[in-house]
Amino acid sequence: MREEYPVELPDWLGSGEDLFGTIQIMKGKNIKKGILEIDYNFNFSEKFSYPVVFEFKTIDNEIVIDHIAFRVWGERYAKQRMIEENITIPGVIRTLRHKDFIHFFAEVVRKDIDFALYLDEIPKKFIGVKFHPLQAGQRIVLNEQLIMEILHCLDTKTSTVENIRNSSNLNQ
Fold first, then answer.
1. Is the pLDDT of residue 157 over 70?
2. Which of 50, 65, 85, 136 could crosslink 140 through cysteines, CB 3.0-4.6 Å?
């Protein structure tokens, strides 16, 4: 059973539609350590679907997500949880690509998912959460390039759905 902590309010609350503005506001800030908690499961497969938490900091004047954690909380047996945290999750993280994170953030924007930012002081509820480093090619820089990649992903999904609808209308 998960330990309960007193409520600690985030420094910033937003939803998917606020993500681009939040990225712009954070630009140029010097953040020693921050947490981005997203109220949405990262679905890697049918069996692997957990809430995701990102850790970020300022590196060379840019805000960079350089660690990731999956919250394996709830009704898990201790042995099952240990297997998932120490074997399954690191294996999944090694297979994730930059593009997978872009698609995840696009879903957050498209579905207007809530998120919270904690800056410099990490809430106690994350003390037991195991963060894993992202490799250089997996890291996410919170900047205009990310916004463009997310918009492109959203446009591609919208275009695909519209093309399917249009082609089915033509066939009727």
1. no
2. 65
Is 75 within a domain?
yes
Torsion of CA 103, 109, 110, 114, to 10 degrees: 120
Sort 34 into a burial class: Cβ within 10 Å, 0-12 / 13-18 / 19+.
Answer: buried
Q: How far apart are CA 114 and CA 108, in angstroms?
A: 8
pTM attached to this predicted model? 0.81
Residue 53 placed within a domain: yes
Q: How far is CA 170 from the centre of its chain?
A: 38
Tell me how many domains the chain contains: 1
Is the residue at 113 inside a domain? yes
- Domain of residue 82, residue span: 12-166
CA distances for 34 relative to 10, 92, 117, 134, angstroms: 10, 23, 7, 15
Residues in the chain: 172
Q: What is the DSSP string of 48-94?
A: -EEEEEEEEEEETTEEEEEEEEE---SS--HHHHHHIIIIIHHHHHH
Judged against a pLDDT cut of 60, whether residue 72 lies above it is answered with: yes
Q: Is residue 2 part of a domain?
A: no
